[in-house]
């Protein structure tokens, strides 16, 4: 990665990978919540 290099910079690669990672975790959390949703309804703390 020298000067005047049109390939993606380190910063942009880092940002893109971060965004993908965040999207992946968000999807994983959403699926986990959807899978977990029916179970915890009856348990009430007193």
Keyphrases for this structure?
46 residues, rod-shaped
Q: Count the helices. How many?
A: 1
Largest pleated sheet? none
Compute the CA-based radius of gyration. Answer: 20 Å
Query: Mean pLDDT, nearest integer?
Result: 81
Amount of helix: 55-70%
Computed structural class: mainly alpha
Number of strands: 0
- What fraction of the residues are assigned to beta strands by DSSP? under 5%
Termini Cα gap:
61 Å
Q: Spans of 5+ residues with little confidence (pLDDT < 50)?
A: none
| N-to-C series of helices and strands | H
Shape: rod-shaped
Which oligomerization state do the chains in this entry correspond to? single chain
Structure in words:
It is built from 1 helix and no strands. By secondary structure, it is mainly α. The model has no long low-confidence stretch (mean pLDDT 81). 59% of the residues lie in helices and 0% in strands. It has one helix at residues 10-36.
Outline the secondary-structure elements.
Layout: H1 10-36
Write a short abstract of this structure:
The protein has 46 residues and is mainly α. It has one helix spanning 10-36.
